[in-house]
Amino acid sequence: MLEEFLRRQEIYATKKILFLFLLVYLVFPLYLLPKILPEGRPLDLHLYYTPTQADTLIASYGVENRLAYIKGLITIDMVYPLFYSLFLSLLLTFFIARCYAKHHKMQYVRVLPFFIMLLDIIENICIILMLLEFPSAIESLALVSGLMTLLKWLLIAIIFVILCYAVIHFYLHRSDIEASNNNAF
């Protein structure tokens, strides 16, 4: 099943599709997300937060901002993780599938963005629940949310390091890769 998924990714990891994903991706941070995020700094853009910090931040949003934040988290911010995970995965696929043999362990790195998606969605659900329960503070929920946020950002950093490595590897060995692709036919 995983092998089939990776194979299908290779079909869609083209320059044209990646460019379209990039254009649509830019709509999220430049247009959609600013409309849904509360004034001040939203919880999910922090690297980590304690339950006390989460409660203080949520209190600072005010009623209208909290309601708008909930609406945004339920709508746009549930779609965004799926979209950027697909984009990152296809971007990784574009370089990794061309640089490494089919069964090389680097091929499996291409699914890591979907773990970010899972962490981000769990984080969003926790934040929604904290916003709905305010002014009651649920410490365990804030702890889980803070941990999901931290893990999400760590995994994003790891993926960007891997992506940079894959891009450099691709361009350093481009002539070898093109030669092996030509010999495959």
- Topology as a string of helices (H) and strands (E): HHHHHHH
Which percent range describes the beta-strand content?
Answer: under 5%
Q: In this structure, how is the largest beta sheet organized?
A: none
**Total tally of structural domains:** 1
Number of strands: 0
**Termini, distance in Å?**
26 Å
Give the class from helix and strand content and strand pairing.
mainly alpha
Outline, from the CA principal axes?
Answer: elongated
> How many distinct helices?
7
Fraction of residues in helices?
over 70%
What is the overall pLDDT average? Answer: 90
Features:
185 residues, mainly alpha, 79% helix
Concise synopsis of the structure shown:
By secondary structure, this protein is mainly alpha-helical. The protein has helices at residues 2-12, 15-36, 51-74, 76-99, 112-133, 139-172, 174-183. 79% of the residues lie in helices and 0% in strands.
Please explain how this structure is put together.
The protein has 185 residues and is mainly alpha-helical. The chain has one domain. The protein has helices at residues 2-12, 15-36, 51-74, 76-99, 112-133, 139-172, 174-183. α5 runs antiparallel to α6 (139-172). It is elongated, with a radius of gyration of 19 Å. The model has no long low-confidence stretch (mean pLDDT 90).
